[in-house]
Amino acid sequence: MDTNLKLFPGTPDRRARSAWERENGRWARVPGTRVVHGFEVTGDGRFGVRVERCPRALADAAPLPVPDVLALARALATTLAAAHAAGLVHGGPTADDVLFRGTGEPVLADGGLVPREAFPVAPEAAWAAPETVRDAVRDARTDLYGLGAVLFFALTGQPPHPARLGETAEEHVLRVLGEPAPEVDRPDVPLGLAKLVRALLDPDPAARPDDVRAELDKITGPVGPPAPSGRRVQVAEAKPLPDTDRRDRLGLVLGVAAALALFAAAPFLLLRDDPPAPSPQVPAVSAPQAPRIEVTEVRDDGDHVTITWTGPDLDYVVITAPEGKPNSASAESRDRTARIAVEPNLKYCFEVHGTDGRTTHRSAPHPIRAAKCTR
Description:
This protein is α+β, with helices and mostly antiparallel strands. It has helices at 14-27, 66-85, 114-118, 130-135, 140-156, 169-178, 191-200, 212-220, 235-238, 250-254, and strands at residues 3-7, 36-41, 47-52, 56-57, 98-100, 106-108, 270-272, 294-300, 304-310, 315-322, 328-329, 337-341, 348-355, 360-362, 366-368, 372-374. The strands form 5 sheets. Strands 10, 11, 13, 14 and 15 form a 5-stranded antiparallel sheet that branches. A 3-stranded antiparallel sheet has the order 1-3-2, with no helix packed on it. Helix 2 (66-85) runs antiparallel to helix 5.
């Protein structure tokens, strides 16, 4: 198979590269994605990823005939559904990420949050969801917006919010945040397809359709097997955002490696003024077999807190819940200690989460400064 070497502007550290390798291993099991053969360092020291060579890109092929757009929509929707069901997030599909093999089969390239964390760039306002442009959110719902942007491009040859002549970058961003995406203006496009693209590009993440394949079935009739899980794939399974105004988005918002995306599904820590009502006693059945994470020390040094814990060989993050402020998560680590910056005189709760890539385990919440914690 022909390959290309995609070069990056720097070299990730050991921890980021390890996380990237794990994430690539998970993406390799998602159908309809470009094959990644591994990492390389060139003779002059530049870092690159060896990838499958695909001779064509959507960026050079649009606009497409409507039947081709419908086929492309179904293929990309299936790929994203499989990724989201596996707890993976692409992070920002654009026309440059949609490639075609020599057979004409479309593939989705350059998915994952780890490389976006290792080599951060500002989101492209022409393509990105409003919440990505505003708050750097990258989750399953922003992937759906990206799918809508790709389909809009496939139909029109333009992204939803192209920059205008004489427009500054700030004006472009404000327009993306303040104006809905335009309608698809093409007479041969079926009404159902135009409505689907409009729904995917809805500024409200909760209004975007969870099951794009089902929406396509309404346009073309059922085609092919059901979604990868055998049931409707809810976006919330990959990255729940029950309240789009919440700021405690944990890993995905804060750039924690995608290998830790399971953490995002865990309940958030909250500070309480009153202790929670006691829970009924339920016999523990599976707890003895579960890995145990125990916080052994929390040392408060005023502007920093040092947390030490015991536990099995997992990837760890520390969840920090300050009083009256959003939760945050530390960088991914296999160490069993972390030093967290805090504000003097503010109450905090901490919780240690660990994952083996399939299951998330967590410690009991630990307060400082008389905080009262619950989930």
